[in-house]
Amino acid sequence: MRWLLVSHDDNSISKQCGELLEVAGQIVICNYHHGKSSIQQIKDKINNQKPDRIIVFMNEKSSSVLFN
User: Computed from CA positions of residues 11, 59, 55, 31, in that sequence, does the dihedral angle turn out positive or negative?
Assistant: First the structure.
């Protein structure tokens, strides 16, 4: 299964999640936007990479840039 992890940066939670998925034999695709990606860029990544599942890691300070 292909997983897309969307996060502001490579924080400990997203890193641990990705590592656990890889240990379980899953394919992990990371998108660390650092506040610079737009919704369209994330949609493009989804269309190009075709993940089966998506996990979005949000925090109040960093990820709100995408959704405001």
Answer: negative
Instruction: Please say whether the beta carbons of 54 and 14 come within 8 A.
Output: no
Q: Which of 62, 41, 36 is nearest to 4 (CA)?
A: 41
**For the chain, which residues make up each domain, given as ranges?**
2-67
**Range of lowest pLDDT (24-28, 33-37, 42-46, 50-54):** 33-37
Strands ordered across the beta sheet of 27-32: 27-32, 2-7, 53-56
Kindly report the pTM of this predicted structure: 0.75
Rounded-to-integer distance, Cα 22 and Cα 67, Å: 29
